[in-house]
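quick q for whoever's on today - can somebody do inverse folding on this one?? i tried earlier but teh output was garbage lol. tokens:
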């Protein structure tokens, strides 16, 4: 084969498309589109996304540990007649609560080069608004009081009565890195990550009682309501699947198991009871703490836009 014949053959192949031109391929819109959604597939190779939907969740509040302390000073005709305090722990078992919640998410995914496997991460939000209350809770206490001018404390027992012990979890935000595998119209994925949840506990109608000399005495007077809230860190695991309606819109279905860390909350309120025994006036402070964690399980469905 002479040089002229070789040049003619190469030119013929190039004209017929047998020898691809790198610059022409990179400039070809169809080639770029193949990198976004391969032929026969609606799943992009990479995309940002945002979605809205709803979820059905079960929130298990488990056992709450409570510790309450009451201090008091008793006055008769304006004179201090005795001082005392009482304290004690209690465990309150709370059942689970189920319900629907608004959900939203946003994130990004990308296939590994030359592979159907992919990685990604998403932020999710669930407006859980799950609340459970236990009524007429007794917090056992022991303590003592010391009459003015005496060095000998007098022991007694009692209870702090809570008309309604109420705990809830409202907002849950999660950041979930994930790995998965893409198919022609779907993605299967699994991921784990941290959460941040808003939790609140209310002690409604709290009254401190003492059993002194065989008589039950209302120490604190009118019922007092205490409340405390905080953001609590935790963790979540998710498994999910998507179905692409086209290369821009897809449905996402996922199951999430999440657990908060221990919620440690504190309470404090002064009290004044002008109707103490024998016309006395009792003043003091009710102080307490509570701790516990919440486990949530939920199934979420969202419709998402890929960019």
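ok took a stab at it. sequence:
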């Amino acid at each position: 084969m002479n040089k002229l014949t070789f040049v003619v053959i190469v030119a013929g192949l190039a004209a017929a498309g047998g020898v691809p031109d790198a610059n022409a391929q990179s400039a070809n819109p169809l080639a770029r589109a193949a990198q976004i959604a391969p032929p026969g597939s609606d799943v992009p190779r990479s995309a940002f996304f945002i979605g809205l939907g709803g979820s059905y969740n079960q929130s298990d509040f488990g056992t709450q540990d409570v510790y309450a302390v009451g201090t008091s000073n008793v006055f008769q005709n304006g004179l201090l007649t005795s001082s005392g305090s009482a304290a004690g722990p209690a465990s309150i078992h709370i059942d689970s609560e189920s319900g629907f919640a608004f959900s939203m998410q946003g994130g990004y995914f990308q296939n590994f080069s030359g592979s159907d496997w992919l990685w990604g991460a998403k932020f999710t939000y669930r407006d859980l608004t799950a609340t459970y209350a236990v009524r007429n809770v007794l917090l056992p206490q022991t303590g003592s009081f010391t009459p003015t001018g005496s060095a000998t404390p007098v022991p007694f027992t009692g209870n702090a009565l809570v008309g309604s012990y109420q705990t809830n979890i409202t907002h849950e935000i999660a950041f979930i890195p994930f790995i998965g595998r893409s198919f022609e119209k779907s993605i299967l994925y699994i991921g784990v990550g941290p959460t941040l949840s808003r939790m609140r506990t209310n002690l409604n109608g709290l009254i401190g009682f003492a059993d002194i000399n065989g008589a039950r005495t209302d120490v604190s007077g009118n019922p007092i309501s205490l409340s405390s809230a905080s953001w609590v860190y935790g963790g979540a695991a998710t498994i999910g699947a998507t179905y692409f309606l086209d290369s821009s819109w897809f449905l996402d279905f996922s199951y999430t198991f999440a657990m908060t860390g221990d919620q440690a909350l504190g309470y404090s309120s002064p009290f004044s009871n002008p109707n103490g025994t024998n016309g006395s006036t009792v003043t003091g402070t009710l102080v307490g703490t509570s701790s516990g964690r919440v486990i949530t399980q939920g199934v979420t469905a969202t419709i998402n836009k890929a960019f």
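fwiw Residues 176 and 193 are 5 Å apart (CA to CA). also The chain has three helices and 13 strands. so keep that in mind when u check it
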